[in-house]
């Protein structure tokens, strides 16, 4: 349980902004005091510059630093506001920690009144990153995490996480390698795994019979894989069309093989071990060079030098990173050391070279990335050498993997964040690609909400938790604090049987059904709530087609379950007191085999929309159980979508931040959607670096669409004009200084709220309350292992 020392609440009215603050939060009482803001009178152009400045600053520094900066500045008093329309906007906010009190704040406007439940008892903990592999041809980045899961990001589509393959217990991964469009991994369990990327599951696993595997790499020709094993052997596997086949061993060594790298020609392999580097001739299998790694001055003789990473260049240069903190360059012809670079006092854990071999990056256990470039030291001279040029400090813990792609350096490690650091010298035009990007959470929803019963289902890798939201007493005035009448309550913890981790899960809107799926099984449970007594019953007899699912969804009346299966098909099952019965299967006309990652059902139970990894969106008529239409394919993946309850229009958000509204009945884009595409969206909106994860609609205001990503909550009013690049996007301060008539003319469709941070889920409940599930990065940092201690200046 974490107690917040203070909580900033914002009260906005048509007359101005009043900042309120609450004192320390205790279990039995809360205190609220009001004070007027002390801020300067700024001209409109100064306000524009001020807000633009803070938005630009948020993009260049971390979230924690940005929050501190914006709250410590006396002039920045609109941060976290939801925007101002002709009528004031108010929040009533209820903050729920496990056993704490509730505080509230009103939000009133033409969009209605919201009571915001800030949920922070979802203790989601992302797993650390262990390996990276970049596919230059497909622009895909594969990421292996310490829990055995594998993720695939589309680098040219804003680094959207388009595929997730869940891990298994006791299945750590040490290395990843692409061979063409096929992905392989190896780990300490001694097996080599190939993945079925179409259906997002393990295709097969074979034993290498060499003990734990420390590294895996494929040659550029795409014909062979090499793995380094605990028993000191480098094993070669031939890559066939159906699966890989063992070919032979290279000369066995006395110590384990830690790292491997192929020469681009495929004729030689460099292997990093304890205290040495070996160069093998692939054709003969014999070692042709043995190079001893220097342990460094002042190092104990009993301490081994571990060659953690090795890179083999086309000119015969071998580059190594070791546990002494050195990056060394070797000549493969003579087997001698060319040059050494002292990078750190700790370990150099990972190396990666660019496609044209003119840049090298090294990741260290201190959390820094060091770049080297192959440059000429004298102008107009051909003599070049490797020179240390840049140092990036974007991690707090060990960096276990780095990869240099076309225009950026990608790194990951123990702090579980995937950092994309752009190389500005390779970017010609400023765009979203030139911004620092940190990916903390999955681009999938881990929270499911039973809107009609106030229940929340939290998905962990190995279990599910069901919670009931708390309640506050009565209604208060704007800015008031409400005492908790009922604390949030954990009702159920459901553990997964077997070794597979959970792929997807859902709770029905009525709260009576819970379903989850792993890569091999699907489980459905009936939940019974009798006053304070909770019981759960497993549905033992399920239709055979419900063996596993990529995505799960219930109908709005909880009478049907939709299960996304292989080849973009969706199975329908009816639910009743007697059990589960198979109804039919929906198949797309396109014949796509890609897995479905999003499902959306209409409120009236007539329509179902699905989105797959081919960027296809199919709409089905549930009454006829046939395909109704297909939305025109867009170049960017769909990240969130929803069907409007009043108009039955499908609203879609894409990874490039574009939005579309499609009329299902008319089978065409709506007039509003065409206006958006014709006029374009504001650059501040398009340049956001995190995808939208949910689309909601307010039944009391049909023109309002509610969206959220990790950093903000946005309400789009389709009745207001769209802002252009000349319009002030974050315009709360400007609207505050205008009269009511002027405010109407200056208002635009986007109202952005940044009060909440590190958002995992936002849901609009039937009682017009908002549930905001947050997972503060500061809380995650406290659960990480301690980083390497570094001496600070003047300490």
From TrEMBL:
GO molecular function: RNA binding
GO cellular component annotations of the record: 90S preribosome; small-subunit processome; t-UTP complex
A GO biological process held by the record: maturation of SSU-rRNA from tricistronic rRNA transcript (SSU-rRNA, 5.8S rRNA, LSU-rRNA)
Protein's name according to its UniProt entry: UTP4 small subunit processome component
């Amino acid at each position: 349980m974490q107690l917040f020392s203070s909580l900033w609440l914002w009260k906005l009215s048509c007359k101005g902004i009043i900042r309120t603050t609450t004192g320390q939060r205790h279990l039995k009482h809360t205190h609220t005091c009001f004070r007027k803001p002390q801020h300067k009178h700024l001209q409109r152009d100064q306000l524009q510059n001020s807000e633009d400045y803070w938005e630009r600053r948020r993009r260049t520094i971390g979230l924690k630093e940005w929050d501190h900066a914006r709250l410590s500045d006396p002039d920045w008093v609109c941060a976290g506001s939801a925007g101002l329309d002709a009528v004031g906007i108010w929040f009533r906010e209820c903050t729920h920690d496990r056993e704490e009190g509730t505080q509230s704040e009103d939000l009133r406007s033409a969009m209605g009144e919201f009571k915001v439940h800030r949920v922070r008892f979802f203790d989601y903990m992302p797993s650390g990153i262990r390996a990276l592999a970049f596919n230059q041809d497909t622009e895909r980045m594969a990421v292996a995490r310490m829990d055995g899961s594998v993720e695939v990001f589309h680098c040219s589509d804003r680094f959207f996480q388009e595929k997730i393959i869940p891990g298994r217990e006791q299945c750590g991964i040490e290395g990843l390698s692409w061979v063409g469009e096929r992905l392989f991994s190896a780990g300490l369990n001694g097996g080599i795994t190939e993945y079925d990327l179409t259906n997002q599951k393990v295709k097969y696993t074979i034993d290498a019979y060499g003990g734990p595997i420390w590294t895996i790499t494929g040659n550029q020709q795409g014909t062979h894989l090499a793995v380094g094993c605990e028993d000191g052997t480098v094993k070669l596997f031939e890559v066939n069309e159906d699966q890989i086949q063992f070919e032979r061993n290279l000369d066995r060594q006395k110590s384990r093989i830690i790292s491997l790298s192929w020469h681009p020609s495929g004729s030689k392999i460099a292997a990093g071990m304890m205290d040495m580097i070996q160069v093998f001739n692939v054709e003969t299998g014999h070692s042709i060079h043995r190079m001893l790694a220097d342990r460094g001055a002042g190092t104990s003789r009993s301490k081994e030098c571990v060659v953690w990473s090795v890179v083999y260049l086309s000119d015969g240069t071998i580059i190594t990173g070791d546990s002494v903190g050195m990056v060394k360059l070797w000549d493969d012809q003579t087997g001698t050391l060319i040059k050494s670079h002292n990078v750190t006092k700790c370990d150099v854990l990972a190396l990666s070279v660019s496609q044209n071999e003119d840049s090298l990056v090294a990741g260290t256990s201190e959390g820094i990335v060091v770049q080297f470039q192959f440059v000429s030291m004298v102008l107009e001279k051909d003599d070049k050498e490797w020179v240390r040029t840049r140092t990036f400090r974007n991690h707090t813990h060990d960096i276990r993997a780095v990869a240099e792609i076309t225009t950026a350096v990608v790194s990951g490690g123990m702090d579980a964040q995937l950092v994309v650091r752009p190389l500005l010298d390779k970017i010609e035009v400023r765009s979203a690609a030139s911004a620092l990007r940190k990916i903390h959470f999955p681009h999938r929803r881990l929270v499911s909400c039973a809107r009609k019963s106030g229940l929340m289902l939290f998905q962990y890798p190995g279990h599910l938790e069901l919670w009931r939201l708390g309640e506050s007493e009565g209604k208060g005035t704007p800015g008031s604090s409400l005492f908790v009448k009922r604390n949030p309550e954990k009702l159920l913890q459901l553990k997964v049987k077997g070794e597979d981790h959970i792929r997807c899960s859902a709770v029905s809107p009525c709260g009576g059904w819970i379903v989850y799926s792993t890569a091999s099984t699907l489980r459905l449970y009936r939940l019974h709530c009798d006053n304070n007594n909770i019981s759960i019953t497993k549905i033992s007899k399920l239709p055979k087609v419900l063996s596993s699912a990529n995505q799960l969804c219930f109908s709005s009346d909880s009478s049907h379950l939709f299960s996304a299966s292989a080849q973009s098909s969706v199975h329908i099952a009816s639910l009743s007191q007697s059990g589960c019965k198979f109804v039919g299967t929906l198949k797309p006309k396109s014949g796509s085999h890609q897995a479905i990652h999003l499902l959306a059902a209409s409120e009236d139970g007539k329509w179902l929309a699905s989105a797959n990894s081919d960027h296809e969106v199919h709409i089905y008529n549930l009454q006829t159980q046939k395909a109704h239409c297909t939305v025109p394919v867009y170049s960017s993946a769909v990240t969130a979508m929803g069907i409007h309850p009043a108009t039955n229009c499908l609203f879609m958000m894409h990874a490039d931040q574009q939005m579309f509204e499609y009329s299902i009945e008319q089978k065409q884009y709506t007039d509003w959607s065409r206006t958006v595409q014709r006029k374009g969206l504001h650059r501040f909106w398009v340049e956001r670096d995190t995808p939208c994860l949910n689309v909601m609609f307010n039944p009391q205001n049909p023109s309002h669409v509610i969206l959220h990503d990790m950093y903000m909550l946005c309400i789009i009013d389709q009745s207001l004009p769209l802002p252009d690049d000349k319009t002030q996007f974050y315009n709360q301060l400007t609207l505050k200084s205008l009269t009511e008539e002027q405010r109407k003319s200056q208002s635009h469709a986007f109202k952005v709220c940044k009060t909440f941070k590190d958002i995992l889920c936002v849901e609009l409940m039937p009682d017009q309350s908002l549930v905001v599930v947050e997972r503060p990065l500061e809380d995650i940092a406290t659960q990480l292992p301690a980083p390497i201690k570094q001496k600070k200046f003047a300490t």
